[in-house]
């Protein structure tokens, strides 16, 4: 039987570790992870690196944008429309909090000895 071990909280750079349900959908978490250290990343790069469809990128980026976690910039390169993404400061803090929470789960139970 495995004993429950309560971790000591585990703070992230932006605050306490906490579960962030908005990031529990794989593409959203992956998108935030991809954007965490970038200034701006274009739509096609996000789509290709995540291995998802255009509608999937659009859907999840809209959800993150509506939550204030993602900033979207639209423009054109030549005559072609282009979209870029970056995390907002709130998005970075939310991601770090969620990652700290996930990391803390690893020490939530003691292994059988």
Automatic annotation (TrEMBL):
Classification via SUPFAM superfamilies: Winged helix' DNA-binding domain
Record protein name field: Transcriptional regulator
Coiled-coil ranges per UniProt: none
Alphabetical list of PANTHER family matching this protein: BSL7504 PROTEIN
Residue ranges annotated for the Winged helix DNA-binding domain, each copy included: 28-103
């Amino acid at each position: 039987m495995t004993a429950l071990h309560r971790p000591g909280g585990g703070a992230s750079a932006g605050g306490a570790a906490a579960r962030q349900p908005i990031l529990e959908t794989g593409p959203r978490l992956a998108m935030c992870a991809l954007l965490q250290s970038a200034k701006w990343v274009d739509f096609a790069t996000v789509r290709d690196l995540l291995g998802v469809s255009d509608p999937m990128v659009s859907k999840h980026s809209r959800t993150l944008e509506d939550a204030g976690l993602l900033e979207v910039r639209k423009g054109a390169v030549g005559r072609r429309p282009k979209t870029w993404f970056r995390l907002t400061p709130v998005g970075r803090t939310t991601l770090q909090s969620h990652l700290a929470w996930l990391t803390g789960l690893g020490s939530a139970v003691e292994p059988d000895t």
